[in-house]
Design a protein that fits this description.
Strand content: under 5%
Mean pLDDT: 86
Radius of gyration: 28 Å
Number of helices: 6
Distance between the termini: 38 Å
Number of strands: 0
Structural class: mainly alpha
Shape: elongated
Length: 192
Amino acid sequence: MSETSALRARLRHLVREVAKFGAVGGVGVLVNLLTFNLVRHTTEVPVVRASIAATIVSIVFNYVGFRYFTYRDRDKSGRTKELLLFAAFSAIGLVIENGVLYTATYGFGWDSPVLSNIFKFAGIGIATLFRFWSYRTWVFRALPAHEAVAGAESILEEKLEDRLGEKLDAELEAEIGDERPPRHGPRHARAQ
């Protein structure tokens, strides 16, 4: 497999990962926004506290989705460490997400239901970039053997392609009659 093929394979893998992350995250955003609006409109909880509660609910939902769907093929040893890292990076994402809403609400006085949802959504978007990077880099780490196996498979595929190409070339030359395919091995050496 050439460098270009290997790069394409890695890119395809990244696109699949982003799609799975987006699917889980998209449902998590809906859980987040629905919980936020439910708490905000049915209780007297202040806007940022309602947002924090909604973010926590979506963090729990997202962990289950990421562990059992997006990153199910990743290293599963050390679940306690994984959960602690997930919680720590999620807390940073919570601060990013709700910091945007806090700034809009208390810094600029933009506190209508529509503006709260707009800035809540903007905060989710910014925090999602951080979460994607941190989760894939630190929390749901790829198995080291997976990369080694992928590298070995690419070498074997390349060798197989080379051998098949040589065999086809030899058979084609034999059919055309230009020359007979070379014979190798001890049995053929004695016959000559």
